[in-house]
Amino acid sequence: MSAPDRLAAALVAATRAGRRMPVEADATALARSDAAAVQAAVAEKLGAKVGGWKVAVLPDGVPAYAPMFAENIRPSGGSWPIPQEGYLLEVELAFTLSKDLPHRNNAYTRDEVAAALEKAVVGIELIASRFEKSPPTAPFPAWLADNMGNAGYIVGAEIPVAAFTDMTGFRTHYRIDGVVAQEVIGHPLHDPLAPILACLNSAEDRLGGFRAGQIVTTGSLTTPKVIAAPARIDAAIHGLGAVSVRIG
Cβ distance 95 to 117 under 8 Å? Predict the structure, then answer.
């Protein structure tokens, strides 16, 4: 069994057991080019359907993306059990796709991406890696293989993309147990379609690319916040709508 296959098997076991795993040699030695194969192997072994994607552009300008499993995408207003080490919480702007955006040799344009977006969505991502936090920490390729830590996604209000008229200056805020935790303006990359376009044109995944009906979330609008105790989270993007979840 190859090192990527062993890592995929270990991630599956950790996911099924609901526990974190130590960062061992297969994780520390994983090449970035093998991360997508591990993602695909984990999805296959779990029998998981891809319900969406989280996309990002790293500080060095390199795009990175990972699947979100359909069973972990749930509507606003529910509750999630809290793991021992808590969640990292992010408030995000996402979009649903009205048509497939398959891998291809020629690059997509921003206009093509915009034409494939059906609705704008306000969401909350819950991040909890399958790797232990204690040193050594998982290097980026292993974090990518672990679906960039995605543990859940809560889908809130959605409106037609054409009705979300301000893609640059929209205001986002969220509350923890009724107390405002943060308020921010716009997207960190200024254009929320930029990470989608960058990831589409990197074509790394082994899970069929972005498909109609899936959700694509464009990275945290807020400073990631550790939620380690039971709490109610209420978030909103002005001009779009609200989302809420109870943790613990």
Answer: yes
